[in-house]
Specification:
Layout (H helix, E strand, L loop, with lengths): L2 E6 L8 E5 L3 H4 L4 E7 L2 H11 L3 E3 L11
Length: 69
Amino acid sequence: MKHKYYVNDNTQKNGDHEVHVNGCYFLKVITNKSYLGEFDTCQEAVRVAKKLYVQSNGCAYCSEACHTT
């Protein structure tokens, strides 16, 4: 099942741009975000996000499979 993904345009303290799935609690409070598209997996979404921001990472809550520490 495809989900809509967004990337936070603002960096985290460690320099990451987090990728979130639509409906994530943390996505609701992000004011600067870019729509990445609809994907079956967070890995696909992170791959697209890395074209915008090389240092992209999945959200630890909504894209846990793509989150790296």
